[in-house]
Amino acid sequence: MSNLLLIECKDYKGAVGVDQLGKFLDDIRDISEGELTYKIRPIMAINSNLAEGAFNKAKNRGVGLVKLNSEKTLTHILNRKYRYQNVDSKYDVEGIFVKGELPSSSNLSYMMYAQSQWFFGVEDYIKFLIGQPFNNSSQKVDFIPKVGLDNLAEKILMEIDYSDGSVNLDKIVLLDTSSHITIVKDVTNHDHQLLGKIDFIQQEIYLYKQSDDNLHRDRFTLAHEISHILLDHGRYLIKDTFSNEDMNGESRNRNGFISKLEFQANYLASCILMPKKTFVDRFLEIYKKLGLTPRGKVFLYNDKQECNKIMVNNVLVGLSRHFNVSKKAVEIRLKDLGILFDESNFMK
């Protein structure tokens, strides 16, 4: 038997109640009184939420539900074939449709729930009804080892004739791999936790203006967004945002799929801003100039001892000034290269 999809759209500011749902079901009943050669599949699309009674009635009567998301609240939107990453275990149906508790890391701009499972679009629902595959949750982010990211950074820097010191990111933007992207700086009217955003459809990078000027933060944000392009993350993403938490690798709201993409972009950004060979050479110069000597294989150890704190800070300041990056970025890079140790190294 064929399927007939009937979709009722409710553009309400408040909750859609039982009466509104009942009217939709009455209309369906009137249509179905004739001799039909197809099965009716009712769907209600909302941009607000459902009253609890309406939600329960929709479930009991087999009404599919579509929730339109505000893209302003989304931290990322995945390409079609990657939409299903960790979805069923992540989203609470009643929380989304009744309480409006849409996760900020939703996979795309609208979601559909029908027959006890999620669908990301009516097209996927139709495929389900006619028995075609639609769920591609087995798709994974390509693994790139750290050495591969260092090598990619080295290749890019060779293309812009980099030799030492602060990397000119504007030259990287002009390379063929990223020249199609428009950089929009000092964007206002945004969540001040956000530092940047990349839109692969519009081919734009947005750098958000903060309440305080911080050149080091802005440079890392731009390097991070450029890295998404250099890594061809447009294969996976439509849009993605970058926050203070993401910069420090501390975000807890990302799913595993997105975390891998963010790690790659962060690590490549570090490799670009602090090229491995140049960075290590400069570190050794500063280390020697400060009269420091390694203890065994450990060059720097940061603990509660004041002398060690001063020693580490002097190194961080010197490298920060030389490469025009933050001390935090230098600290992370030193740890990644096995030069700086603290308690976190031994807790892993």
Structure description:
- This protein has 348 residues and is an alpha/beta fold.
- It folds into three domains: 2-129, Trna Endonuclease, Chain: A, domain 1, CATH 3.40.1350; 146-273, Arc Repressor Mutant, subunit A; 276-347, no CATH class.
- Helices cover 41% and strands 19% of the residues.
- It has helices at 18-32, 52-60, 93-97, 122-129, 146-159, 169-173, 215-230, 244-247, 256-273, 276-289, 306-323, 327-336, 343-347; strands at 2-10, 15-16, 38-46, 49-50, 64-68, 76-78, 110-114, 117-119, 182-187, 194-199, 204-208, 237-243, 300-301, 340-341.
- The strands form four sheets. The chain has a five-stranded mixed β-sheet with strand order 1-3-5-7-8, with helices on both faces. The protein has a five-stranded mixed β-sheet with strand order 6-12-10-11-9.
- β7 (110-114) and β8 form a beta hairpin.
- α7 (215-230) crosses α9 (256-273).
- The longest helix has 18 residues, at 256-273.
- It is elongated and about 90 Å long.
- The protein starts with a strand and ends with a helix.
- The mean pLDDT is 84.
